[in-house]
Amino acid sequence: MEPDLFTAAEEDRREKDPASSPLAVRMRPRTLDEVVGQQHLLRPGSPLRRLVGEGNGGPAGASSVILWGPPGTGKTTLAYVVSQATNKRFVELSAITAGVKEVRAVIEGARRAAGGYGKDTVLFLDEIHRFSKAQQDSLLPAVENRWVTLIAATTENPYFSIISPLLSRSLLLTLEPLTDEGLRGLLHRAVADERGLGGAVRLPEDAEAHLLRIAGGDARRALTALEAGAGAALAKGEEEVTLQSLEEAVDRAAVKYDRDGDQHYDVASALIKSIRGSDVDAALHYLARMIEAGEDPRFIARRLMISASEDIGMADPHALQIAVAAAQAVAMIGFPEAAHTLSHATIALALAPKSNTATTAIGAALADVRAGLAGPVPPHLRDGHYKGAEKLGHAQGYVYPHDVPGAIAAQQYAPDALRGKRYYQPTRYGAEARYADVVERVRARLGGDVPTEPRGGTPS
C-alpha cells in the first residue's frame, strides 16, 4: 500500500470503528462549510472555493497549492476536504520521513490510477520546508504535468523555504491561528457530535477556559487535550470533565490568567517592572505565565521592544536591536519555539544596565512643544533648495559641519526660545557613560550654557 494512502478499505474500517481514530481525526470537517476559522479563505468565489469547483469560475487554475500557517490551523483538513469535494484519491506524506523515492512512488501510482481508473490524486505533503532543493525539484514534473494535485503545507515562510519554480506554479494560501471563539465552537461540537464524544460528558466553563489556554490557537491540541480529559473523567465514572481531571490528564496545571481581564495587564506589568528592576528570575516567571496562558507572542515581543527603549535606552543601545530581532523571529516561527526567543530577549533586557533618559528627554521636549515653547527655525537652517530662498535669507550663513575640524560647527541650531535648553541628561550607567562624556564635549564646542552634570556614579 502507498504511504499513508486513505484507501476505501481503510475509510470503511474507520467508519465501522470510529473509536480507533483520535478525536481530532474523527472531527475532521467533511466540507469547507464545516471548517473552523480561516474565513478569509472561505468566502464565496475565493480561490479555495474555486479549487473544489464551487462558483462560476470553476476550478482554480493552479495545479499546486501551498498552505502556510501555524500548527493545528487546518492545513491537513483543507487538503482532505479538497480531495473529498473533488472525488480524488488522497495520499499523505510527511517530508520528515519521506524522500524522493516515496514521492516518485506516489507519482507513479497517481499516473496508473489516472490511466487505469480515471481517478486523479491529491498528494498532501506536510512540512515541505524540510525537503532540500533537490527533493523539491523532484515534484516539478508532477506539478507541471498535473499528474497529481499537490497540496503542500509549511509552518515556515515559503518565500525562504520553498524553491522559486515550485512557488511560482502554486497558489499560496496563508492560514491564521484559530480564535478562542472558533475553538470554543469546535469543542462544543466535539462534545455533542456522534463522531466525537456523543454527549457522554459535559464540559464546564473553567475546564473549557483551560483548554482554550493550552490550545494556543491549535485545534489539534485542543481536541487531543479534550479527549484525554474526557477519558480520565469516564474512567472515574464522572459525567463532567472537571478542571482537576483535565489537569491530571494533560499533566499541566491551570494558569490563573485571563487574557481579556485584569490579570492580562497585571502580569504584563509585572514582567516589565521585573525587567526594569533587573530581577531576571522574576521576569522569567512572569514570561512563563504569559506563555502558559496562551498569550499572543507578538504582544509579549512588543512589550519587550518598548522596555528596551523606555528602561534601558542609551545604557545599552544594543538592547533595542535584541528586542526587535526577537519580535521578527517570533513573527516567523510562532509558539512553541518562540518561547526560547522570548526567554533570550527577556534575560538580556533584565541583565542590561538601565537608563530612562530616552524617555525623560522626549517627555520634556514634548511638554515644551505642547506648552507652545517653540519659535521659528533659525534662517540659516531653513531649506534653501528652491528659487527665491536666497532672497529670503534662507540657508545663508549655514556652516557645513563636515568642512570644519571634528565635524562640529559652532552655530545656533535650536530656535531662539530654546537656546541653552538641555533635554538629554545622560547617566553614567553602562554604555551611556561614554555618551555622557561625548555630549559634554559637544555642548562645550557648540557654545551656550555649561551642561548639567550627568546623573549616576562611576561607569559600570
TrEMBL record:
Cited InterPro entries: AAA+_ATPase (IPR003593), AAA_assoc_2 (IPR032423), AAA_ATPase_RarA/MGS1/WRNIP1 (IPR051314), ATPase_AAA_core (IPR003959), DNA_pol3_clamp-load_cplx_C (IPR008921), MgsA_C (IPR021886), P-loop_NTPase (IPR027417)
Keywords: ATP-binding, Nucleotide-binding
A Pfam family per the record: MgsA_C
Keyword ATP-binding set for record: yes
Residue span, AAA+ ATPase domain: 61-182
Region of interest called Disordered, as start-end residue ranges on this chain: 1-23
Family classification: Belongs to the AAA ATPase family. RarA/MGS1/WRNIP1 subfamily.
Protein name: Replication-associated recombination protein A
Organism from which the protein derives: Streptomyces pathocidini
